[in-house]
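[job 4471] stage=fold_predict status=RUNNING
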Amino acid sequence: MKDSGDRYSDPDSGRERVPGLVLVFSCGAPAMVVLPMTEGEIELGRAAHGLPLDGRMSRRHVRVRFEGQRFFATDLGSQNGSAVDGEMIPAQQRTEVQRVLRVGDSLLVPQRDITPLARYGVKVKDGRVIGPALHMLLTETATAARFGNALHITGESGTGKEFIARSFHETGPNREGRFVPVNCAAIPQGLAERLLFGTRRGAYSGADADAEGYIQAAASGTLFLDEVGDLDLSVQAKLLRVLETKELLPLGAVRPRNIELQVCSATNKDLKTQVAAGRFREDLYYRIGRPAVSIPPLRKRPEEIAWLVDAVARRITSTASLHVTLIEACLLRPWPGNVRELLVEIRSAAQTALSHDAARIEARHLAPGAGTAINDSGIRGSGDFDSMIEAMSQRSGRVVQPVIDRPSDRHSDRSGERMLDRPIDPAERARIESALRSHRGNVSGAARALGLHRTQLRRLLERYGLDPHCFADSGPLALDGDDY
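[job 4471] inference complete, writing structure tokens
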């Protein structure tokens, strides 16, 4: 750590970093107030530093210090106390803040660099919540659309890959054409070639008429290939030829037709790893794998959470307000299904609150498993949450274990008996149903959203008596469309 007052250099960008706190929620509403800590320390109190007036905040409430890339909070004997990562802390005891600091009815998140938030803030445009990460991604996407005809998007399930793909289409030269999304993971084996390239009458038994394929439908527009890594290798070869020659030859046709289109692809896998394993063609990778943008998961974009929750709640109710505990709980959970999962669970929480005539939507209205991964072999913190969970356990004197799946167990299929022997869990069943609805009954997509191997999910479907085909016609549950 440099001396107090110095800024912290960012080795990745060459610019200086400014640590600080970001107010994300206050007095029942989303907020965006950036508090730089250029001196390495800040004292918070009622109406200080331009904060909204919070009646439950004392005049001198809490002191926060930045040391060695870590944030520490000390409650100054406030009347209502302070909470760090969901746990009330004793007065005058210095406690590390990992995820969120609650002061009165206000929530603040620590950031090692508040520069992007200070520059871009959080905006709600056309029903879409756009924080700094998405703002910069949209800028990159617009540049790619103006100067090229391909873009590859990576990111976890539910982060908004289709939203970025639509932005690529809308800012490119083919914006007047059609945007044709294709979920490659949902195409049955043996039908991919017909569905992508189309067929001519008589091409096979039962082909009584010409059928337009996805590529032809996207002519003069944009073809979006979601989960492109799931395409069969033989189909990849034919797709590459279409992109290289700009000629489309449907099944049963003898003459190709010229075709112009932009191609946007997406996956939650590493295509380079797929190439090395022989599951994805190297030549196709070089054709569609660059340029590439990566969408960070929701847990890396905490400044957006309160705005997303507020937007969903407003669509459900105009009477019930948001309680600080609801947003705090959302900030503390990893949300493996990302934005898609958050929207589904908040919608459910709002409906639960209304069914009980509650005036506020609180953390208790969230399903117990909301925002956590289903795991059939025990619970254990993972990823960025390990250090937070350890710190919380040390403070409370008890073991705190969120339900987050272990990567080593995620793809194991040797525990079917344990899964079937477990007692029925209504919350788990509800989460599975929500994932199936979001993915229109596609087991592979629902399994990815839940952090499970599809074999594990199929066992759970058997256990709960769920038929994925019953969800095939369900529309995806998203904030403003089907692009999550």
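[job 4471] summary: The mean pLDDT is 82.
[job 4471] exit 0
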